[in-house]
């Protein structure tokens, strides 16, 4: 019997993790990415390895996914993580009132935490606002998104996967009521080609709706943009979060020699055409200074905006939509051989991959189990070997 062939569209964290999972289960895998690896949302996000703290009060399903995956990624890809922890800090009475709910949320979601004295928090973070009223330490961290994807893909390639970047899917090929392949253009050669597949996985994040439309199906993915502002100095050792429900400008993530303030949230029609509103940048700098006042002495190194692939829910504001993920087997929409995985976070990419790979294997009659929880990834450096 020939090995089934799965085409994965999208070389962000979701597609990369899915390639690893399916290759490890022995399937023939091809990844198609229209740009460089991680050139979509993954390569321009906040780089926070979520502890789940941000969601533990209002979105506990997502918080539990985050802490579980945080612990797994520490085991399988230590090379691409900075395990610096995070602080949730109270700056006013409203934040202080939130603290009890936050601690209860950490307990409910099994997020390890330490309620530390303010004096200790200021020792750990000398630039933190000295008016801080309370601080809780959690196992946040920071990842390098490009290397994270390369680690998944280098391991997938070691297990036989073919990775084609600069290769865009322009059409889905259908036979009757099934997707049986894709038409592509390879931008390095200018050549077009048709590739056959037993199953096509749509892992295109905020572009998932566009790819699904090629098969005439709808996925409820709402591209929801957020702005981040990078300053030219690293102002914090740990991730600094506002101790309150998620809101604009409530987090400063250290990334190498810089700090990144984020973020906002608004719906966009086209993830390729996001204009950064000037007032969002000003707001990030203003709110960032509430957490770390000396940000006023830094210079802005860059501003960026990308779109989250949020799963749309009727009558729910984008700040309130769960950050969890969903997998759609389009057989239920009348189209077989085609599956979409979307939503979630880079932190939960491995879990997303497990879920979609379980569905792919069930559809193909493959019994191999997921082994990505315990399989260390090879170095991202091997991607280019
Ligand atoms: C402002 C912001 C901050 C965030 N911060 C964090 C954070 O700190 N931590 C965290 O864990 N998560 C964070 N997230 C969420 C996280 O970035 C996303 O959930 C994740 O990157 C989605 O990955 P993906 O692979 O599904 O999508 P993407 O990374 O967008 O990958 C999809 C890929 O598909 C490709 N593609 C599209 N169309 C085609 C086609 N026709 N042919 C071939 N390829 C195609 C695109 O080029 C793209 O590379 C943040 C999101 C936003 C918006």
Describe it.
- Helix 1 (about 15-25) packs parallel to helix 5 and helix 1 (about 15-25) packs across helix 8.
- Strand 20 and strand 21 (about 340-345) form a beta hairpin.
- The chain contains eight helices and 21 strands.
- The mean pLDDT is about 95.
- The longest helix has 17 residues, at about 60-75.
- It is elongated and about 65 Å long.
- Strands 5, 6, 7, 14, 15, 16, 17, 18 and 19 form a nine-stranded mixed β-sheet that branches. A six-stranded mixed β-sheet has the order 9-2-1-13-21-20, with helices on both faces.
- It has two domains: about 5-40 and about 145-220 and about 325-385, FAD/NAD(P)-binding domain; about 50-145 and about 220-310, D-Amino Acid Oxidase, subunit A, domain 2 (D-Amino Acid Oxidase, Chain A, domain 2), CATH 3.30.9.10.
- The chain has about 375 residues and is α+β, with helices and mostly antiparallel strands.
- About 25% of the residues lie in helices and about 30% in strands.
- The protein has helices spanning about 15-25, 60-75, 95-110, 120-125, 145-160, 210-215, 280-290, 350-365, and strands spanning about 5-10, 30, 50, 80, 85-90, 115, 135-140, 140-145, 160-165, 165-175, 180-185, 190-195, 200, 220-230, 240, 250-255, 260, 265, 300-310, 325-330, 340-345.
- Flavin-adenine dinucleotide binds next to helix 1, strand 10, strand 14 and strand 19.
Summarize it.
With 385 residues, this protein is α+β, with helices and mostly antiparallel strands. The protein has helices at 13-24, 60-76, 93-108, 118-124, 145-158, 208-214, 278-291, 349-364, and strands at residues 5-9, 28-32, 48-49, 81-82, 86-90, 114-116, 134-138, 141-143, 162-164, 167-175, 178-186, 191-196, 199-202, 221-231, 239-242, 251-255, 258-262, 266-267, 300-311, 325-329, 338-343.
